[in-house]
Amino acid sequence: MSNADASRSLTDRLTDRDTLYRIGLYVAMYGLAVVFFVPYWRMFQLSVTPMSVLSQGGFHWIPPEVTFAVWQRYLLEEPIIYQWAFNTLLIASITTFIVLVVDSMIAFSITRLDWPGQGLILAVIMASFMIPGYVNIIPLYTLINDLGLMNSYWAIILPFAAGPLGVFLLVQFFRDIPEELEEAARLDGFSSLRI
Question: How far apart are CA 55 and CA 50, in angstroms?
């Protein structure tokens, strides 16, 4: 057997191995896609199936009868869903803005400014990851009630206004920015707040 035949057979074997790998990869990806798609299909299917069919029991991949009465009711007749969407958009936008401003100032001061105890403050912030969220429920409720913010948007926005995750991510981000850029900005006359 010549060298050309040996190299060709090695190439064929690699090609066969690559083909098998790709087939396995595609089967796994399509399998995962089906696993993730089925709950959404089932949700949609249940929303367009009449109650008379649902009460009979059984499982159908395709509903025997289709009605959009539920969609019509909640989108046209009782449009409370639009209020829910507005509330979600408003709360998420305000919370995101406040979190970015507050957490970026905290992270910048920890990474770029030199003050005593900044390592301790960062350690305390990181240690707060270990406190479960439900431990704070009663103190948060009491604080919001004492501030008179009960049943308002601020009762949802303020508890999430600053958190350890945003500070942690932004500390890592600021550490990756070269200090030479900050020095160049200071030479151009920028203050710490403007940087």
Answer: 9
Domain endpoint, select from 34, 59, 77: 77
Cα(190)–Cα(183) distance, integer angstroms: 9
Whether the predicted model's global pTM rises above the 0.70 cut = no
Are residues 134 and 53 part of one domain?
no
User: What span, in angstroms and rounded, lies between the C-alpha atoms of 35 and 28?
Assistant: 10
Domain that residue 180 falls in: 80-187
pLDDT digits (tens, 9 = 90+) for 114-162: 889 888 999 999 999 898 888 989 999 999 999 999 999 999 999 888 7
Which of 77, 100, 134 corresponds to the end of one domain? Answer: 77
Q: Is residue 192 part of a domain?
A: no
Contact 183, 170 (CB under 8 A): no
pLDDT in tens, 5-41: 555 565 566 677 788 898 999 999 999 999 999 999 9
In which residue are the tokens 């009979």 written?
56
